[in-house]
Amino acid sequence: MKVTIFQGPGEVSKLNALQRLKQEFSKEAIFQIDLKSDSLVDLETTIVSQSLFEVNQKLVIVSNAPEKLDLEDLNKKAGDQVSLVLVTPILKASSEIFKSAKKINARVLTFEGEKELSAFTFLDFLIEQKPLVFVELEKLLKEYGGMYVLSMIYYLLRRNLLPLPASSFLQNKILMQKKKYQTKDWANLYLLTIQAEYGIKSGASPENIALYQLVGKVMGKKF
Fold it and tell me: Which CATH number fits domain 2-110: 1.10.150.130, 3.10.450.320, 3.30.70.20, 3.40.50.300?
């Protein structure tokens, strides 16, 4: 079994890395386990079970893994056709999960959060339709470029559509921000973002212009 750990505070970076990894597998070969709601038995069953579809490799993504998780034991039960990815905060060196990861030579990738923090003000201003969003947009474009800004907008949309996070602070923040929007608004915002991305990647629109236009439509709620 190939084991990779995505650790660290960079939630958006981890999410983007996962999206890229998923593209290497067919949809039928991707399984997601949340050990906050699923059991260790569910994880073991997913790892060892044969798929109903003919797939050579399968990807198992695990979130909320406990620090006592023994990856060495799991590795003994799995075959070579399994790629296991654990998404975690920074692991303690003393944790069982980290110790067992070293024993099986798991790949550990750390995603820092500093870069993302600089984008959160932009995201808040955007979803709350505050004019200072254009100032923040200009800063991000100069420092990180348009593709980074686009990935953060996708993160914002996912954050408001996925189940609420555990943090009560973030829960209240997201619920307040969502009050202005209806379900159809999120679908339209996704469409606008996809159109902006297509315009940029096809060369039909310069990166900066496409993103300023996208932000302008959100600010004017023209969707």
Answer: 3.40.50.300
